[in-house]
TrEMBL record:
<dbReference type="InterPro" id="IPR044770">
    <property type="entry name" value="MFS_spinster-like"/>
</dbReference>
<feature type="transmembrane region" description="Helical">
    <location>
        <begin position="200"/>
        <end position="223"/>
    </location>
</feature>
<feature type="domain" description="Major facilitator superfamily (MFS) profile">
    <location>
        <begin position="75"/>
        <end position="510"/>
    </location>
</feature>
<dbReference type="Pfam" id="PF07690">
    <property type="entry name" value="MFS_1"/>
</dbReference>
<comment type="similarity">
    <text>Belongs to the major facilitator superfamily. Spinster (TC 2.A.1.49) family.</text>
</comment>
<feature type="transmembrane region" description="Helical">
    <location>
        <begin position="306"/>
        <end position="328"/>
    </location>
</feature>
<dbReference type="GO" id="GO:0022857">
    <property type="term" value="F:transmembrane transporter activity"/>
</dbReference>
<feature type="transmembrane region" description="Helical">
    <location>
        <begin position="111"/>
        <end position="134"/>
    </location>
</feature>
<dbReference type="InterPro" id="IPR020846">
    <property type="entry name" value="MFS_dom"/>
</dbReference>
<protein>
    <recommendedName>
        <fullName>Major facilitator superfamily (MFS) profile domain-containing protein</fullName>
    </recommendedName>
</protein>
<keyword id="KW-1133">Transmembrane helix</keyword>
<dbReference type="InterPro" id="IPR036259">
    <property type="entry name" value="MFS_trans_sf"/>
</dbReference>
<feature type="transmembrane region" description="Helical">
    <location>
        <begin position="37"/>
        <end position="57"/>
    </location>
</feature>
<feature type="transmembrane region" description="Helical">
    <location>
        <begin position="441"/>
        <end position="461"/>
    </location>
</feature>
<keyword id="KW-0472">Membrane</keyword>
<dbReference type="InterPro" id="IPR011701">
    <property type="entry name" value="MFS"/>
</dbReference>
<feature type="transmembrane region" description="Helical">
    <location>
        <begin position="166"/>
        <end position="188"/>
    </location>
</feature>
Length: 530
């Protein structure tokens, strides 16, 4: 797949217990007061990992030295597994909206606020990922974020009050805020420019498969009871357990491609993670100073500003789509049929994201300054006709099952290109490699914060403008009237933003070329100085 193997060299032997202690101690003393939640998670990791690392030393030593399974980089494999769990966790709550609505007597606007809270906190906390990655290697940051979202997911499954669910969704957003930018920058550093779209596409592909799995499992389990416990609660606890396990594997086995570089060109001696952590034990003031400089460097880039603007607008439809599960169930589809329809849409998105990345890679070789932008505009534009056809043209009846299925698959195949074909690869080309996590973090900060308003807006429009009434819903046969109202709210938050998103890419035909050239010249000057 064009993996940049030169950056994934073998490393020194793995000393699990001393390395583990240095990781945690450095976190403890660097951020003891600024982030209380971070310190609590530090204590959880200390207890959890000490037992696991001490009991599996010999096995870990063997795998850490090889770092490959069937010829595939172990780091890339585990990073993709983390992406699978991240997307599965994101799709968990929307898949059981109907059950949560009945359990807590909540309407669409209340459910929309749950998504709003998580996305808003995720957006505000995303810059923290850029700060942490400056001082620590990304596997440690990923593991902490994974533990955070696993804890909150389990807590949602055990919540008895709606406000408890809202609080833990905020904690979930904090964990995702740390994980997602670190994942994206890890992939950007692991692939070369000409195939970076395929790298992001593969990450999105496997992540979407995780979303499919999480959504299907939650939707199917939602209609059951296990040991007297509602199935949707069991689904949350199961997801939390799996996420914790993946976080453990990431912490123990993944090697940061940016930091495993040679310091002796003759002997090819590589820095290992323990030496890197020792470097991160400097004064807190220097960390914040470097973070502030990186922030200013990223925000003033015109390409970043344009992509963030389109991302804010373009994220609105995707955030609104969390109501698809509820909409199909209101039409009258059962849990299994709804899960199948949304799985087809997710499969289409997975294939489309990878296909879009590959096509953009090829097109960028022919048109290096505009190929990716063309792909992004095509994908955004296709959201308009598909939204209209899905929500307004197709009869809202269970007899339209196959029409819904084909439309959802084709829609997913064509509207999912932007992130992998353009946004992710272009971000990597307009900043130095050391600032990549920061640019992805601020992208998530701006997009997540503003797009989080889409979900409650769908609920408000459905209730206030189109007549949705949660009290008149038939829990068995659905409610065509409420389904129609919800579809109009969805259409309002999908078709128009897709069109504006397409137009927002236009200035990049001029700006992207200039920004990329500036980075190239800066890199040349830096090499000459060295």
């Amino acid at each position: 797949m064009g993996l940049n193997r030169s950056r994934l060299r073998s490393s020194a032997p793995f000393h699990s217990k001393p390395l583990f202690r240095r990781h945690l101690q450095s976190m403890k003393y660097t951020y003891p007061q600024c982030f209380p939640l971070f310190y609590v998670i530090y204590l959880c990791w200390k207890c959890f990992f000490f037992f696991c690392v001490e009991s599996t030393g010999d096995i870990l030593l063997t795998f850490h030295r090889t770092r490959k399974i069937f010829g595939v980089s172990l780091s890339i494999l585990l990073i993709n597994l983390a992406a699978i769990m991240e997307r599965a966790d994101e799709n968990l709550l929307p898949s059981v909206y109907k059950e949560v609505s009945e359990a807590f007597n909540a309407g669409p606007s209340d459910l929309g606020y749950l998504t709003f809270i998580r996305n808003f906190v995720q957006g505000l906390a995303s810059p923290l990922a850029g700060v942490l990655v400056i001082n620590y290697d990304r596997p440690t940051v990923l593991a902490i974020g994974t533990m955070c979202w696993a804890l909150s997911t389990a807590a949602v499954g055990g919540s008895q009050q709606f406000h408890q669910v809202a609080m833990w969704r905020a904690v979930n957003g904090f964990g995702l805020a740390i994980v997602i930018p670190a994942l994206q920058s890890f992939i950007a550093d692991s692939y070369m420019d000409g195939v970076r779209g395929a790298g992001f596409g593969l990450l999105s592909l496997v992540g979407t498969l995780g979303g499919i799995g999480g959504g299907v499992v939650a939707t199917v389990m939602a209609g059951q009871q296990f040991w007297g416990t509602p199935g949707w609660r069991c689904a949350f606890i199961l997801m939390a357990t799996l996420s914790s396990f993946i976080g453990l594997l990431v912490f123990l086995f993944v090697v940061d491609p940016r930091k495993t570089v040679s310091v002796n060109h003759d002997a090819r001696i590589n820095l290992e993670r323990d030496e890197l952590v020792e470097k991160g034990n400097g004064r807190v003031s220097s960390v914040w100073s470097e973070s502030w400089m990186a922030t200013k460097a990223v925000i003033k880039i015109p390409t970043f500003q344009i992509i963030v603007l389109q991302g804010i607008i373009g994220s609105l439809p995707w955030t609104a789509m969390v109501f698809f599960t509820m909409w199909f169930e209101l039409i009258g589809f059962d849990h299994n049929s709804t899960a199948a329809l949304l799985s087809l849409f997710a499969i289409g998105c997975a294939m489309g994201s990878f296909l879009g990345g590959v096509i953009a890679d090829r097109l960028s070789q022919i048109y290096p300054h505009s190929g990716r932008i063309i792909c992004a505009q095509f994908s955004a534009f296709m959201g308009i006709p598909f939204s209209l056809f899905l929500l307004k043209v197709i009869p809202q009846s269970v007899s339209s099952y196959y029409t819904f299925a084909i439309t959802l698959f084709m829609m997913g195949l064509t509207i999912s290109w932007n992130a992998t074909a353009a946004n992710g690869p272009m971000f990597a080309e307009v900043v130095p490699s050391k600032h990549r996590t920061m640019i992805y973090a601020f992208d998530r900060a701006f997009e997540g914060s503003f797009s989080s308003f889409a979900a409650p807006l769908v609920g408000i429009l459905s209730e206030k403008m189109f007549g949705y009434d949660s009290k008149s819903i038939d829990p068995i046969n659905g409610s065509p009237r409420e389904a129609f109202a919800l579809s109009r709210g969805l259409l309002s938050m999908m078709a128009i933003p897709f069109g504006l998103c397409c137009l927002c890419y236009t200035p990049l035909y001029k700006l992207f070329r200039r920004d990329r050239e500036n980075v190239r010249l800066a890199a040349v000057k830096e090499e000459e100085m060295i």
